[in-house]
Amino acid sequence: MPDLRPLVRHQLMWPVLALVVLLVVNVVATPSFFSIRMQDGHLYGSLVDILRNGAPVLLVALGMTLVIATRGIDLSVGAIAAIAGAVACTSIAGSSQESATGTAIVAMSTALAVCVLLGLWNGFLVSVLGIQPIIATLVLMTAGRGLAMLVTDGQITTVNNPAFRRLGAGFVATLPVAIIVALVVLGITAVLTRRTALGMLIEAVGINPEAARLAGVRSRTIIWTVYVFAAFCAGIAGLMIASNTSAADANNAGLFIELDAILAVVIGGTSLAGGRFSLTGTLVGALFIQTLATTIPTIGIPAETNYLFKAVAVIVVCLLQSPQARAALAVNRRPAAAPVKAGVA
Amino acid sequence: MSAVTVGSTSWVDRVKGYSPPQRFVPVIATFVLFVSMFGVGSIRYEGFASPQVLVNLLVDNAFLIVLAVGMTFVILTGGIDLSVGSVVALSTMIAAATLRAGWPPVLSMVTVLAVGTLLGLLMGLVIHYFQIQPFIATLAGMFLARGLCYLISVESIPIRDDLFGSLSSATITLPGDVYLTYTAVIALVVVGVAAWVLHMTRFGRTVYAVGGSEASALLMGLRVARVKVGVYAISGFCSALAGLLFSLYMLSGYSLHAVGMELDAIAAVVIGGTLLTGGRGLVVGSLLGVLVLGAIQTFISFDGTLSSWWTKISIGVLLLVFVVMQRFFSRRQS
User: Fold this and answer.
1) Which fold, B21-329?
2) pLDDT band at A273, cuts 50/70/90?
3) Scanning A278, B11, B69, B275, which has its CA 20 to 30 A from the CA of B78?
4) How far is residue B157's CA from residue B147's CA, in Å, rounded to a whole number?
5) Are the Cβ atoms of B147 and A318 closer than 8 angstroms?
6) Would residue A109 count as lying in a domain?
7) Domains of chain B, residue spans
């Protein structure tokens, strides 16, 4: 067990360091960055904002982490998020009691059920038909926004439902609901994957699906499950986005969120080649992305250029992860690197 | 079935006995799809069957054809290029910004093409020499190009250059009063050149070899590195050229041009019958793929009662059908 400690340290050192650097930049730019104030029993402050705005990306990234751990990818999460928002808002708007709590619960359950169906569809394409994950989910990525527009009839559907609004903009026990939901999902995922064999099985499938199957792991079921989970997480994220604005925008809700999620996963140290994953890393990655989005306007650069910084982040992280760069960097540390590899395998 | 066979043995036998070369089958399927779509369209809608509608498919999708050609090269080697849409946007931005700064139009065009090719080359180098998955490297390229767009300007920049203006409005009259723009001609030339490169040159054959099996290609002593980097440079060049065509079409440069166009390009290539695992496919197929996508749009605009989002849904469905077909096709072979 003590062997694992340097491994964890090694994996998370860079992302955490990057996050800390960003936070320091923020503090230098705005000294009041860390201050959190209490107002009407709610917590406010930049850090709370980062957590709250980062909740959808974190949720999507959680699902994405497990998908990537099986050597897959899910490009359709943004479209699924849009569909979730569209279904929920249309359902609420079409109800006879628009502002009732029951309506919101029914609407959200319907939306999540639809997302699970979409996840089943993705999983079917990947695990049963054996289509490459990029392409299988590309189908829904292309068609999904069309479906969302079909649901909303091409309009931006606005709703007025206090219970629904709480998910994205409400507070429970001084904290925004969005943060609590995201952290609860993170916690459940962590317990399910790290306190049961599930996480190991997912990694086994990611390393070699065929070998895992021969060893008695139900590869197909596991792959199917992770796509359903990813779609479910995307659905919650979509509900959050729709709830935050009390509107479903089929075109723009969750736009590029799949890329942000992949970025968060990659920054967190989960290898795109599959076979190992780190939920903590994903959390750090999602926070990094959201902090970056906050930092750029703070230090006086147009907010839109954050793409540029994301690109640099992806390139740097990938280069650091690539075997060639590692070999070049770790010439002196080779004895230390050997047990790390053993730990991974 | 059997009754028909008895009725006209010789004819059916000849038809049944003929099987087109395996590599043409997907392209023929796409061609049949395109023709039948056009057939259905001309039966249902008045004026659909005119030659001008057909030519307009080329005119309105010239940039997409060029993009799909570049994407074909990349997918043939088993890679993927997600950056093309952003590079198109970046190209329109560079063209518009340099023209506004008073550069001669030719110099501005050359700059655009150079930047696109350079970006592609860089991505290719990163993919090959650092063994980073094409998906993630070009994703970075996509972000980079969009970021650079915003760095140039957040606002849309109009293009008021005379050469650009005359190029975009100039037409060639074909027999039968059909108008063709120069952009469409350029797109067709690109398709021709790409087909020539893929089938008549050493580079082209190596592209297919790398897509078939990179390890085998390496063991055969083929120049794998040059090809793997080269296809991304070609895709970058094609994206930049497509960006120029797009700026002629829109006469403006804007950071939000061509959002999601990479998906259309990939869809066109897949519908055109190129295997996503690489090694099999034709450039002509990608041209047909773009025409099918264009035909869907024409269909929807002719119908009038169908909403625009049916375009996306039908592209998704077509993509699905072709991917599943590919899957069964390759499974049967192996």
Assistant:
1) ABC transporter involved in vitamin B12 uptake, BtuC (1.10.3470)
2) confident
3) A278
4) 16
5) no
6) yes
7) 21-329
Average pLDDT over residues B203-213: 92
Partner-chain residue, chosen from B135, B146, B313, that has the shortest CB–CB distance to A143? B313
Residue A142, in any domain of the structure: yes
Collect all residues with Cβ–Cβ distance below 8 Å to A99 and sequence separation of at least 6.
Answer: A160, A161, A162, A163
Residue A331 has pLDDT above 60, yes or no: no
Q: Which of A145, A267, A272, A318 to mutate to test the interface with B (most CBs of B within 10 A)?
A: A318
d(CA A251, CA A17): 36
- Kind and range of the H or E run holding A43: strand A42-44
Out of B154, B316, B327, the one facing A129 most closely (by C-beta) is B327
Judge if A306 and A230 occupy the same domain.
Answer: no
Q: How far apart are CA A81 and CA A235, in angstroms?
A: 5
Angle at A140 between CA A138 and CA A145, to 5 degrees: 115
Of A276, A308, A288, which Cα lies nearest the Cα of A17?
A288
Task: Tell me, yes or no, whether A279 and A305 share the same domain.
Answer: no
Q: Is residue A222 part of a domain?
A: yes
**B114, B138, B143: which is closest to B125 by C-alpha?**
B138
Per-residue model confidence (pLDDT) at position A4: 53
User: What would the mean pLDDT of A32-59 be, rounded to a whole number?
Assistant: 82
Token pair 């996050």 is found at A19
From the list B132, B277, B310, which residue is nearest A146 (CB)?
Answer: B310
Which residues of chain B have a CB within 8 Å of the CB of A307? 143-144, 146-147, 150
Indicate the number of domains in chain A: 2
* Angstroms from A184 CA to nearest CA on chain B: 29
Q: Do A221 and A129 share a domain, yes or no? A: yes
Nearest CA in chain A to B147: A308
Q: Are residues A294 and A318 in the same domain?
A: no
Q: Tokens for B113?
A: 């093409």
Note whether A340 and A271 are same-domain residues.
no
Same domain, A93 and A165: yes
pTM of this structure: 0.85
Instruction: Determine contact, residues B211/B199, Cβ cutoff 8 Å.
Output: no
One domain, residues A49 and A91: yes
What are the helix (H) ranges across B130-223? 134-152, 162-169, 182-200, 202-212, 214-219
Give the minimum alpha-carbon distance from B82 to chain A in angstroms, rounded to a whole number.
Answer: 11
Q: What is the ipTM of this complex?
A: 0.80
Interface mutation target, options B93, B313, B321, B322, chain A, most CBs of A under 10 Å: B313
The CATH number that applies at residue A60 is 1.10.3470
Residue B185's nearest CA partner among B62, B290, B60 is: B62
Residue A15, in any domain of the structure? no
Range of the domain at A330: 301-345
Last residue of a domain, one of A298, A318, A337: A298
Residues A253 and A316 in one domain: no
